[in-house]
């Protein structure tokens, strides 16, 4: 009898574990709802305030690495923090998929300047892809606050593509990352 109960308990644990397995093809979501906004949003100076409980809405990683964190604020004040620049960019490209919001609802996007460590408007940054700098999700697309620092950065770290966020589209995303910006739907 004890052995049967042990086997049943093991089956229940395995079933629960299988039902909680992460689906890497879809954006991270809380059960039964869209992405969960951060408890504290951006302040007037674009400073980010990610908390220990905040999770990236794209990959569900924590946002505790303050050197890599990025954010998008919607016009209703909801703010989402991202583990790094790539997840923020995917959400900027497709807020309807990753944030449950339309393009017009995006109020601002903020990232952390690579050389300065200061908050940086993601739309005014010059971005460098293809360098040797790694972030939480692998090769990092690096934001620079000063276009004049691009040459210095590329001399130190390499880099293949430079762009501004307003020029990013699905084709450029796929070119610089080798991946699609939108997850494939499962049959």
Task: Return residue spans where pLDDT drops below 50 for at least 5 consecutive residues.
Answer: 4-32
Main sheet? 4 strands, antiparallel
Radius of gyration: 19 Å
Question: What coarse outline follows from CA principal-axis ratios?
Answer: globular
The string of secondary-structure elements, in order, is HEEHHEEEEEEHEH
Distance between the first and last residues' Cα: 42 Å
> What's the helical proportion of residues?
25-40%
- Number of helices, counting only DSSP H or I runs of 4 residues or more: 5
User: If you average the pLDDT, what whole number results?
Assistant: 83
Proportion in β-strands: 15-25%
Indicate how many domains the architecture comprises: 1
Helix and strand content put the structural class at alpha+beta
**Total number of beta strands:** 9
Strand order of the largest sheet: 2-1-3-4
Describe this protein's structure.
The longest helix is centred in the N-terminal third of the chain and has 18 residues, at 2-19. It contains 5 helices and 9 strands. The strands form 3 sheets. It has a 4-stranded antiparallel beta sheet. A 3-stranded antiparallel beta sheet has the order 8-5-9, covered by helices on one side. A hairpin with a 4-residue loop joins β1 and β2 (79-82). It has helices at 2-19, 85-93, 95-98, 149-157, 170-177; strands at 70-74, 79-82, 106-112, 119-121, 126-129, 134-135, 138-139, 142-144, 161-163. The protein is α+β, with helices and mostly antiparallel strands. Helices cover 26% and strands 18% of the residues.
């Amino acid at each position: 009898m004890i052995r049967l109960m042990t086997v049943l308990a093991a089956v229940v644990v395995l079933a629960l574990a299988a039902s909680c397995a992460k689906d890497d093809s879809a954006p991270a979501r809380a059960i039964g709802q869209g992405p969960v906004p951060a408890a504290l949003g951006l302040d007037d100076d674009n400073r980010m305030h990610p908390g220990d409980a905040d999770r990236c809405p794209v990959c569900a990683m924590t946002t505790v690495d303050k050197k890599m964190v990025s954010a998008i604020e919607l016009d209703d004040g909801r703010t989402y923090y991202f583990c790094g620049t790539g997840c923020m960019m995917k959400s900027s490209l497709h807020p309807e998929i990753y944030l449950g919001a339309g393009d017009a609802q995006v109020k601002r996007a903020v990232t952390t300047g690579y050389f300065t460590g200061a908050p940086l408007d993601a739309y005014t940054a010059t971005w460098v892809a293809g360098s040797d700098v790694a972030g939480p999700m692998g090769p990092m697309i690096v934001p620079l606050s000063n276009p004049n620092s691009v040459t210095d950065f590329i001399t130190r770290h390499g880099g293949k593509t430079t762009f501004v966020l307003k020029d990013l589209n699905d084709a450029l995303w796929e070119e610089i990352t080798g991946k699609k910006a939108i997850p494939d739907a499962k049959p």
